[in-house]
Design brief:
Keywords: ATP-binding, Chaperone, Nucleotide-binding. By secondary structure, the protein is of the alpha+beta class. 39% of the residues lie in helices and 21% in strands. The protein has 22 helices and 22 strands. The strands form five sheets. Strands 1-6-5-4-7-3-2-8-9 form a nine-stranded mixed beta sheet, with helices on one face. The protein has a five-stranded mixed beta sheet with strand order 10-11-14-12-13, sandwiched between helices. Strands 18-17-19 form a three-stranded parallel beta sheet.
């Protein structure tokens, strides 16, 4: 058999286009060729199981090999094989039947994945790295003759009799000078590990040395000998292909270690398995993240029939779950997808909704089944849940029943439980419920103690997402506001009718204010004389809740850059009913008055961690003098 011909094409040569547009992603040629070999292998297994192939299947692994001297890379399988006619049909006609449309449609394409897989181009991706591609194949069909196809990247091809004696196909790439990196064992292993790690057929890449028992020595100790064995680079049966009922917790943990060798054990996992209205399997793990909100994206891997596609799964997995780890496999997502395709595909949108629901259901189940354990994990999973509630309305509706608020006493409450707990004492004179919170319990301890004296509860809101979560709670909860415990004196945070009477006269109030303003002498510190409980601190330094919240959000890049640029302004609340104020008024020496006022102010700064540098040194000196 011998035949020469021209590939039917009505426009410019297709191969320069392939090379030009696929250059940035040229390593995926190996994924395509190995995937094709796996497909051919699975098809012969299927035909055998249906009784349509009577021969021996033999060892069905796919082999990848290279010859550095000859500059060849070979992908071999023992699958269906092809006849000469099938080569012409599948390699020539299909690949180029739509060439004109292809060139027009993709002439401006940027994404390699947008091209590969169109019009049979999976095989032709080989020309990104090869000057010449050769096929040696023998069909499974009875009486079939071996066939050889060769093409140098032009529109010319040649089909002749082949030399293969066993069923299957060899794809032989004669690697071009620019692509000699693909004649390196390390580089090829890297690509195979990335794309082919879980293919459903064993993939052999060379051999490796292993130790095996070889009797005992004279002292009765076991001896070992080194043997060369096939280097199988993949796990053909990963856990997501199995039924959850057939797996133990250890199986899930072992698989996690296989994916992420240096990570701590995950908190728990969700096994995805759905076949309608789309096909989807996978396992998603909740890692221990604490308050590290630096998105470690690219931790969820997307597969199609166990072939790795991408670890950029933003459109498939809801953004708030991007911190999860694991795998998703769906044959309904094409092996070769572009970002624009993902964003528009209806199956992808359904998968996104399904994963959101599945995660919410799992968290609700854990909460109901073992609340104590759920509370212990809240420090890790709270970031996921809060972010989900902020970004996904449907998730909020489910999560509001298991989302927890935690207070400074390390107690945990659902939203409804917390409302019941504090409503009696923390409702102000206008009927508004006020939740107090701290972002740093140690630093804001004086303010927390002031609140606790009134039996007010203080929440801990110290995760990086809490700024946004606080805003959402205020939007969702009726007649409820959240105030940071150090944003004002406690009597002003929750205004009641029973305000302590003011013991200072108008003249005394003016005098005290003047003394403190002179002692502090800072433009960003506004002094106000307050009528507070005599047991409260003589001076408190606070920052307006709204301004502070806006500035915090600006620091997180929350679109509030205007507020971030504004100067820091504070309120200095002087407790007019405190004994120290009376002492200042009775002191006739102006210098001593100023010293006492400055000392009280510095103490207020010190309690907030705001007294530093030269001001702190001066405070220490003054304290020694006053002792």
């Amino acid at each position: 058999m011998q035949e020469k011909g021209n590939i039917s094409i009505h426009t410019e040569n297709i191969f320069p286009i392939i090379k030009k547009f696929l250059y940035s992603d040229h390593e995926i040629f190996l994924r395509e060729l190995v995937s094709n070999a796996v497909d051919a292998t699975q098809k012969i297994k299927r035909l055998s199981s249906l009784g349509q192939y009577q021969g021996e299947l033999g060892d069905l692994k796919v082999e990848v090999s290279f010859d550095e001297e000859k500059k060849t890379l070979t992908i071999s399988d023992k699958g269906l094989g092809m006849t000469g006619e099938e080569i012409k049909k599948y390699i020539n006609q299909i690949a180029f039947s739509g060439a004109t449309e292809f060139v027009e449609k993709f002439k401006d394409a940027k994404d390699a994945n947008e091209l590969i897989g169109k019009f049979g181009l999976g095989f032709y991706s080989a020309f990104m790295v090869a000057d010449q591609v050769e096929i040696q194949t023998l069909s499974f069909q009875e009486g079939a003759e071996p066939a050889r196809w060769i093409c140098d990247g032009s529109t010319e091809f040649e089909i002749t009799d082949g030399t293969r004696t066993e069923r299957g196909t060899d794809i032989i790439l004669h690697i071009n000078k620019e692509s000699e990196e693909f004649l390196s064992k390390h580089r090829l292993q890297e690509i195979l590990d990335k794309y082919c790690r879980f293919l459903p057929v064993p993939i052999k890449f060379g051999t490796k040395t292993e130790s095996e028992p070889d009797g005992e020595d004279e002292e009765g100790k076991p001896k070992y000998t080194s043997v060369e064995v096939d280097n199988i680079i993949n796990n053909p049966n990963p856990i997501w292909t199995k039924a959850p009922a057939d797996l133990t917790d250890q199986d899930y943990l072992d698989f996690y270690k296989e994916l992420y060798p240096f990570s701590e054990d995950p908190l728990f996992w969700i096994h995805l398995n759905v076949d309608y209205p789309f096909n989807l399997t996978g396992v998603l793990y909740f890692p221990k993240v604490k308050n590290d909100f630096d998105f470690q994206k690219n931790k969820i891997k997307l597969f199609s029939r166990q072939v790795f596609i991408t670890d950029e799964v933003k459109d498939i997995v809801p953004e708030f779950l991007m911190l999860l780890h694991g795998v998703i496999d769906s044959p309904d997502i094409p092996l070769n997808v572009s970002r624009s395709f993902l964003q528009a595909d209806s199956n992808v949108k359904k998968i996104n909704s399904y994963i959101t629901k599945k995660v919410a259901d799992k968290l609700a189940e854990l909460f109901k089944k073992d609340r104590k354990s759920f509370e212990e994990k809240w420090g890790d999973i709270g970031v996921f849940v809060k972010y989900g509630m902020i970004s996904e309305e449907k998730f909020y509706d489910k999560a509001k029943d298991f989302a927890l608020l935690s207070n400074t006493k390390k107690e945990h409450y659902t939203l409804e439980e917390y409302k019941s707990k504090v409503s009696a004492l923390q409702t102000d004179k206008d009927g508004n419920l006020v939740y107090l919170y701290t972002i740093d319990a140690a630093k804001q301890d004086a303010f927390i103690q002031s609140a606790n004296k009134k039996d007010y509860d203080v929440l801990e809101m110290n995760s990086p997402i809490d700024n946004h979560f606080i805003n959402q709670l205020e939007q969702k909860l009726e007649k409820t506001s959240l105030k940071r415990v150090d944003s004002d004196v406690v009597d002003k945070l929750i205004k009641k009718d029973d305000t302590p009477p003011h013991v200072l006269s108008e003249e005394q109030t003016t005098k005290v204010k003047d003394i403190f303003e002179k002692a502090i002498n800072k433009a960003n510190m506004k002094v106000e004389i307050e009528s507070l409980n005599p047991d409260e601190l003589p001076v408190s330094v606070t920052q307006d809740e709204f301004m502070r919240r806006m500035k915090d959000m600006a620091q997180m890049g929350g679109g509030m850059s205007f507020y971030g640029a504004l100067p820091e302004n504070f309120k200095v609340a002087v407790n007019g009913n405190h004994a120290l104020v009376n002492r200042i008024l009775q002191t006739e020496n102006e210098e001593e008055q100023g010293q006492l006022a400055k000392q009280a102010f510095d103490l207020a700064l010190l309690s907030q961690g705001m007294l530093t540098g030269a001001d702190l040194t001066e405070f220490v000196k003054r304290s020694v003098q006053l002792i």
